[in-house]
Amino acid sequence: MRKMAVISVSLNEKNLEVLDKMEKELGLAGRSEAIRACLRAAEAELKERASLTGEVEGVLITVHRKRDEQSFEESVHHHTDIISTQLHSHLKNGKCLDVILIKGSAESVKSLMDEFHKEKDLEYLKFIQS
């Protein structure tokens, strides 16, 4: 087994609750194992994103808190050239769901996703290529 590096990470209470819940529900051996699982999931997402090339089409699904809706909509308006349709719905607990049909260059899709990732109230983002 390779030597593990020890790092220090600052997490808020909500992050710790999620980490502990993940550890328990997935039967992991501790918080470190839970963080490694998160990193593997993030790595898989990065690989999937890197595979987007040329012209792409698909569905972008987001969940975000309603309070930051204006900033979210500004990002959408910056990319109207690749957005075919947008379905917006208000969910429980002050959250919003957006389902966005996209067709355009992979670079434009990645740019839109970059803007969404910067939103502090973004809770979920997934692009499903058709």
Outline the structure in words:
The structure is a single chain. With 130 residues, the protein is an alpha+beta fold. The protein has 2 domains: 13-49; 54-129, Alpha-Beta Plaits (2-Layer Sandwich). It is 42% helix and 29% strand. It contains 4 helices and 4 strands, in the order H-H-E-H-E-E-H-E. The chain has a 4-stranded antiparallel beta sheet, covered by helices on one side. Strand 2 (83-90) and strand 3 form a beta hairpin. Helix 1 (13-26) packs across helix 2. The protein starts with 12 loop residues before the first helix and ends with a strand.
Spatial gap, N to C terminus: 40 Å
The CATH H-level homologous superfamily of the largest domain = ACT-like. Chain A, domain 2
Report the CATH architecture of the largest domain.
2-Layer Sandwich
* Large-scale geometry: globular
Secondary-structure element series:
HHEHEEHE
Write the layout of secondary structure elements.
Blueprint: H1 13-26, H2 31-50, E1 55-65, H3 69-77, E2 83-90, E3 95-105, H4 106-117, E4 122-129
Antiparallel strand pairs: 1-3, 1-4, 2-3
Helix pairs in contact: 1-2
What key attributes describe this structure?
alpha+beta, 2 domains, four-stranded antiparallel sheet, globular
TL;DR of this structure?
The protein is α+β, with helices and mostly antiparallel strands. It contains four helices and four strands; from the N terminus they run ααβαββαβ.
